[in-house]
Specification:
Layout lengths: L10 H5 L3 E3 L5 E3 L19 H22 L4 H35 L2 H23 L4 H11 L3 H12 L5 H18 L5 H21 L4 H20 L6
Length: about 240
């Protein structure tokens, strides 16, 4: 992932990438507009076969988008990867249906052992999925699957930091990328778009703290960047001078 050298304001482009500040120096990048996944009711909540058919159609669409990004030429490989991803969508839904309420209760009760046990079962599901992908795809292709499952938020956010925070060193860029990849690993197991966004928000807080400790002022950098975009927006919307 490379930093973009310039930032040109485009209202349509930036409608997909809205930035706001919540709290002291906590830089938050909103979910892109195309990320419209919602938690689909589990089997226990389904009341009709058409609802299940709609769910299947939805995850088939997500899987098709991932396969399109992979651009695989081997039809047998396509079939294998398709089945692996489809199975993971269903496994994640089943896991969240069975465990979300228990996890919430354990967290509320402060039962760290129960929380750890529940989350361990999700990690096992995650590790099995990655292992199956790795048996059929190259490492870069596995990354593509992970990125598509998380709306490319790791790359988008990395490029945003590079655009907004001036004078980042290569070491700092590498540290940002490490944290965003950790966020991606966690977010790809979430049950909804909002939960995935919350994971990245948590890691952005860590990144902001890290950059501030390195001598940057993330909140100030965001403010200055936002002001520049407003000026560019005004220039782009200004009427042409009279001839």
């Amino acid at each position: 992932m490379k930093c973009l050298e310039t930032v040109r304001f485009n209202p349509i482009k930036y409608s997909l990438f809205i930035i706001t500040v919540l709290g002291a120096g906590n830089l938050i990048f909103a979910m892109p507009a195309f990320a419209t996944e919602e938690r689909t009711p589990g089997i226990s909540n389904l009341v009709s076969e058409p609802m299940e058919a709609n769910y299947t159609k939805a995850i088939e669409g997500r899987t098709a988008n991932i396969l399109k990004a992979l651009a695989l030429s081997d039809t047998n490989q396509v079939a294998r990867v398709h089945d692996i991803i489809m199975a993971q969508w269903r496994a994640l839904r089943a896991w969240h249906d069975a465990n979300d309420a228990k996890l919430k209760q354990a967290v509320k009760a402060g039962d760290s052992n129960a929380v750890a046990q529940i989350r361990t079962s999700l990690k096992s599901l995650h590790d099995r999925f990655v292992s199956e992908l790795s048996a059929n795809l190259a490492p870069s292709q596995v990354d593509t699957v992970k990125d598509r499952m998380t709306y490319n938020k790791a790359e988008v956010t990395y490029n945003a930091y590079c655009q907004i925070v001036p004078n980042l060193t290569e070491t700092e860029k590498a540290a940002i990328l490490v944290l965003l990849k950790q966020a991606r690993e966690e977010a790809m197991d979430c049950g909804s778009a909002d939960e995935k966004s919350a994971v990245f928000k948590k890691y952005k807080g860590k990144i902001n703290n890290y950059l501030n400790a390195q001598g940057h002022n993330v909140s100030k950098a965001y403010k200055e960047w936002g002001e520049k975009q407003k000026l560019k927006a005004g220039e782009n919307s200004a009427p042409a001078p009279a001839r």
